[in-house]
Amino acid sequence: AKGIPVTFADLSYSVPVKKKAPLYILKNLNGVFQPGRLTALMGPSGSGKTTLMDVLAGRKSGAGSIEGEVLYGGAAAPAG
What we know:
By secondary structure, the chain is mainly beta. The protein is 10% helix and 45% strand.
């Protein structure tokens, strides 16, 4: 299996905060995960690694807001 690249551009994820501006967990990220390549996602605890993977996998929903573009093999994920 060849696999497909996962590309993200200007990707942000924010959560609402009562009576304040939204809190950005991810802000304006850009990157590509290439098929057949090992990619390390590194950073300290609380830096957003799991949030990024959840957004890319389509597992973030609910109160949070996703902005930007995520492409799977050059196409956007189907809605739903």
